[in-house]
Structures are given as C-alpha cells and as structure tokens.
Specification:
- With 109 residues, the protein is mainly alpha-helical.
- It is built from 6 helices and no strands.
- It has one domain: 434 Repressor (Amino-terminal Domain).
- Helices cover 57% and strands 0% of the residues.
- Helix 2 packs across helix 3.
- 10% of the residues are buried.
Length: 109
C-alpha cells in the first residue's frame, strides 16, 4: 500500500529537510548506523532514512525515540514553548484587566 503524498508549504518542507539533516548528523557524530538506530528506535531502516530526509509522515513516536537514543529527548520540550503570537491573541481577547472588587465595610467586620 503506498502512502499519499501531501504537499507541504515550501518553508515547512525546507524546515523538515533541515531537521532531517541535523538528525542524520547527530546520529553520525555518535557513530550509530542507520540499521543500529532502527533497532534501537524499534523502527525499520527505511523509516529512519525517511525521517532523516525530512519526511514528516514518520510518527512523532519514532522521532521521540530517535531523540531519546541520541540523548536529545529534552529538545521536545522546546517545541511551541514560546507561543508569543498565541499569547498576544489571547491577551487581546481578554481585554483590559478588571479591577478587583472593592471591599466594603461589612467585609472588614
């Protein structure tokens, strides 16, 4: 069964290919072959090759295990960690901060 090829935005495709290249370089720096990485990640060699070539259809579970083998699992914590655009949108929807209710005489007794 063949996979459906989905077109990515050009910028996203470039980022995917660059991510794959960084992953491949990190693996090679550690002296790990594709076959050994596949065994450690519990995936096939073609899946590892696809990931390293920027194929975003590879599951995030495979990516997470790949990063764990490399000792880079904490890099997942950086994905969408700083959502400045989302925070600005949410803040605009909230409007002005409200003043806390004033305390009346009855609250002080």
């Amino acid at each position: 069964m063949s996979r459906t090829k989905r077109t990515l935005f050009p910028g996203t495709q470039r980022q995917a290919v660059e991510l794959g290249a960084r992953l491949r370089l990190a693996r090679r720096r550690r002296g790990i072959s594709i076959a050994e990485m596949a065994a450690r990640v519990l995936a096939s060699s073609p899946t590892i090759s696809r990931l390293e070539h920027g194929d975003l259809t590879v599951s995030t579970a495979v990516l997470a295990r790949y990063l764990e083998v490399l000792g880079l699992a904490s890099d997942l914590d950086h994905i969408a960690a700083h959502d400045d655009a989302g925070a600005a949108i949410a803040d605009a929807r909230l409007g002005r901060p409200r003043r806390p209710p004033s305390r009346g005489l009855a609250d002080e007794l």
